[in-house]
Every structure is written in structure tokens, then in C-alpha cells.
Amino acid sequence: MTDPNKKSGTSPTDFTLQDEGSIFLLVPQNSARIWIAEHISREGFQPYWPTIVVEHRYISDIVEGIRNDGLAVS
Fold first, then answer.
1. Alpha-carbon span 22 to 54, nearest angstrom
2. Cα torsion angle, 26, 27, 32, 36, sign
3. Residue 17, Cβ density class (10 Å: 0-12 exposed, 13-18 middle, ≥19 buried)
4. How far apart are the C-alpha atoms of 66 and 70, rounded to whole Å?
5. What is the spatial distance between Cα 32 and Cα 37, in angstroms, rounded to a whole number?
6. Is the CB of residue 26 less than 8 Å from the CB of residue 54?
7. Engineered SS bond to 24: which of 2, 35, 37, 54, CB 3.0-4.6 Å?
8. pTM exceeds 0.85 for this model
């Protein structure tokens, strides 16, 4: 059976990235919450869990790690 939410010829997005000016919001979709739980500590200031609040200086390393693990960010 085909996934009605998946567009033909495209891969699903595991994370959406929102630039909010002084911070980024990294929003996990589908099972990407598992990646968040395994790689991002909840002990810091994360008021929107599982959405992650990220400073600009860290976002490129986090996105690189996500992509290295075979997940997609848009």
C-alpha cells in the first residue's frame, strides 16, 4: 500500500528546520523523535521538547550528524 503523504519521487522529511532569527527550531517528524532522544540531551533548556531549540553556532554540526545517519532535513 502506498503512503498517501509521500509525494512520488521524493524522500520523506525526517526533520524540518525553522530559522527563527536568533535561534533555530529543529522539529522531528515521524520516527525522528528516536534520533532526538538518542542524540540530544533533555537536561538543557528544551521547553518545546521534542522540538529542539538550537543556537546558530551548533545547527550545522547537528544537521550534519542527522544527515550522516541517513535522515533528511528540510
1. 9
2. positive
3. middle
4. 7
5. 9
6. yes
7. 54
8. no
- Of 22, 41, 30, the closest CA to residue 74 belongs to 30
- Amino acid (one-letter) located at 14: D
Q: How far apart are CA 2 and CA 48, in angstroms?
A: 32
Q: Which of 65, 52, 62 is nearest to 23 (CA)?
A: 52
Distance CA 71, CA 31 (A): 10
Tens of pLDDT along 35-51?
Answer: 998 998 877 777 888 89
Alpha-carbon gap, residue 23 to 39, rounded angstroms: 19
- Largest pairwise CA distance in the chain: 42
pLDDT-derived band at 11 (thresholds 50, 70, 90) equals: low
In the prediction, which pLDDT does 47 show? 81
Q: What's the mean per-residue pLDDT of the chain?
A: 85
